[in-house]
């Protein structure tokens, strides 16, 4: 279980270097579901945009990633993780300077207003309900690419607003 004590970062990493900003984008998915990963990868392939998906399965892996790797361009963070609460991870990430301005979107199957309110209070940029099926994930990727990553999906056309 990740606690606030685990949020101490000994090294500071910076977000994507400017020369990479116009080319490759990185989404960090923090979710223990291999089905969600599979659907996101399929949707990204269909999208055709230069977006890499990095996956961490636990709260501990996500916090360790924040210390050891360059910051991603966007984070999709599940609330329910096998070793802790995604809201604790969110709070940890928001304390780490490179993550203060990165869009962190809570990505959950929970429709509970209380979860949405807690996510907003902890600094989530947005709260997304997990879609169903490849069509739902493809639509989601198109919207994420355009709104948060400023890239167009060649294989999906323009996402509807």
Automatic annotation (TrEMBL):
Alphabetized UniProt keyword annotations: Phosphoprotein
Domain Response regulatory: 26-145
Source species, domain of life: Bacteria
Gene3D superfamilies the record matches: 3.40.50.2300
UniProt keyword annotation of Cell cycle present: no
InterPro entries (alphabetical): CheY-like_superfamily, Sig_transdc_resp-reg_receiver, TCS_response_regulator
Keyword Phosphoprotein: yes
Listed GO biological process terms: phosphorelay signal transduction system
Residues with the 4-aspartylphosphate modification: 78
Classification via PANTHER family: RESPONSE REGULATOR RCP1, RESPONSE REGULATOR RCP1-RELATED
Protein name: Response regulator containing a CheY-like receiver domain and a GGDEF domain protein
């Amino acid at each position: 279980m990740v606690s606030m004590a685990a949020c101490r970062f000994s090294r500071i990493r910076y977000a994507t270097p400017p020369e990479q900003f116009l080319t490759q984008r990185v989404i960090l998915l923090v979710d223990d579901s291999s089905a969600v990963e599979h659907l996101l990868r399929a949707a990204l392939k269909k999208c055709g945009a230069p977006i890499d998906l990095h996956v961490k399965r636990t709260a501990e892996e996500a916090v360790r990633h924040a210390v050891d790797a360059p910051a991603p361009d966007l984070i999709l963070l599940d609330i329910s993780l096998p070793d802790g609460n995604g809201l604790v991870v969110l709070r940890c990430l928001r304390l780490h300077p490179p993550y203060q301005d990165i869009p962190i979107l809570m990505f959950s199957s929970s429709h509970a207003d209380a979860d949405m309110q807690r996510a907003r209070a902890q600094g989530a940029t947005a709260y997304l309900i997990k879609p169903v099926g490849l069509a739902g994930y493809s639509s989601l990727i198109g919207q994420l690419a355009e709104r948060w990553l400023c890239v167009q999906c060649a294989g999906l056309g323009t996402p509807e607003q």
